[in-house]
Specification:
With about 350 residues, the chain is α/β, with parallel strands linked by helices. Helices cover about 35% and strands about 15% of the residues. The protein has 11 helices and 12 strands. Strand 7 and strand 8 form a beta hairpin. Helix 2 crosses helix 10. The structure holds S-adenosylmethionine.
């Protein structure tokens, strides 16, 4: 493993890049969500595979090298990208994850989302290599349910809990527990999950995630998000709103509960500041769109990476916007572009 990179950027550096990359809707890109492998040790019943078309769970050969990943992040950081989240597949399947972390440029936050099964042994080395914090996917505290949702063998839930403990000990905090809500399966476990995180005194946060029912077979598991938000708000002593996706955070009896509400939510899209990268090296402007990817493996220099980055950002479009608003905005964008072209001709 290479030496730890003492990356950390000051607020000032983030606020003053030479230029921010903004899409045609004016949304600045300040974060990257990078899938570093399609391989996974679980097969969750609802998994969206980070928007990859079908789970390739493919050979290691197509995965990006640490050099390419760090080259992309270096270019993006020049334009105000200050947060990077690693995902997968299961990112801890990458034995060279520490190498990837070690070659990153200064950033405000580097995090990873993991199922936690392999976390216990890696937490310290990941922290030493520069990982700031983790999200751990945990939908239930009942072993049989965990096994049914994830397809994991018996004893796996215990490993995840040990992984969470090791992450807290290693300082990969705050650890966020990603709980995808599934009607009739785990929607009665929110309170037990809150009790589970309470002893960690703020070092573990609960993140409730609305199920993205990308497959019609999943529709029966979708919860009533409005009713849930109402009940969280009624119980909360404080509600905060994050810029990213306009997510709400509720402080309930001293524990922090964040709600991620992506479906049919125009606010979510309007406040999306992330660009995705697929495990096989393609910029992906939106989780739910697959016909606008930009292959970055073609890049042979930092200048070429920059060009492809700009192209990908120019293809970003809010997925859920009311059609009326979308038409209005589209017309405005076209009008503006037309005027600019006329000025260039003059
Ligand atoms: N294996 C890693 C993990 O378990 O965190 C990373 C990959 S997983 C696809 C990343 C996150 O996406 C997990 O927290 C998972 O719960 C969430 N996720 C996957 N499919 C989803 C869906 N259909 N709706 C909402 N969230 C989903």
């Amino acid at each position: 493993m290479k030496q730890k990179n003492p990356r950390k950027t000051s607020e000032a550096a983030e606020e003053n890049p030479k230029e921010f990359l903004a899409d045609p809707y004016g949304r600045k890109v300040t974060g990257l969500r990078i899938s570093i492998t399609d391989r996974c040790n679980l097969s969750c019943i609802y998994c969206h595979n980070e928007g990859a078309e079908g789970c390739t769970c493919g050979p290691i050969g197509h995965e990006m090298t640490p050099e390419l990943i760090c080259g992309i992040v270096r270019e993006a950081a020049k334009f105000g990208v200050s947060k990077v989240k690693f995902s997968g597949g299961e990112p801890l399947f990458r034995k060279d994850f520490e190498d990837i972390l070690s070659c990153l440029p200064p950033l405000k936050e580097v995090s990873a989302t993991t199922n936690g099964i392999l976390l216990e042994k890696r937490a310290k080395t990941l922290k030493a290599a520069g990982l700031d914090r983790v999200n751990v996917s945990l939908d239930t505290l009942v072993p049989e349910k965990y096994e049914a949702i994830t397809g994991a063998p018996a004893g796996s839930l215990e490993k995840v809990v040990k992984g969470i403990e090791s992450a807290v000990e290693a300082g990969l905090t705050p650890v966020k527990l990603n709980m995808v809500l599934l009607k009739g399966i785990n929607d009665n476990e929110i309170d037990s999950m809150m009790e589970f995180i309470r002893p960690y005194k703020g070092k573990v946060i609960l993140q409730l995630i609305e199920l993205m029912d990308i497959d019609p077979k999943l529709s029966k598991y979708t919860i009533d998000s409005k009713a849930l938000e109402k009940s969280l708000a009624e119980r909360a002593s404080e509600v905060r709103v994050r810029h990213l996706h306009h997510r709400k955070k509720y402080i309930i009896d001293g524990v922090e509960v964040e709600f991620v509400h992506p479906m049919d939510n125009s606010e979510f899209c309007a406040h999306c500041s992330r660009l995705r990268i697929t495990a096989d090296g393609k910029f992906k402007p939106c989780l739910l769109v697959n016909d606008n990817l930009v292959d970055v493996r073609e890049a042979r220099s930092p200048e070429e990476i920059e060009k492809l980055l700009r192209l990908a950002v120019s293809r970003r479009k809010p997925y859920y916007i009311p059609i009326k608003v979308f038409e209005q905005e589209k017309n405005q964008l076209e009008e503006k572009k037309g005027k600019e072209e006329k000025w260039v001709q003059k």
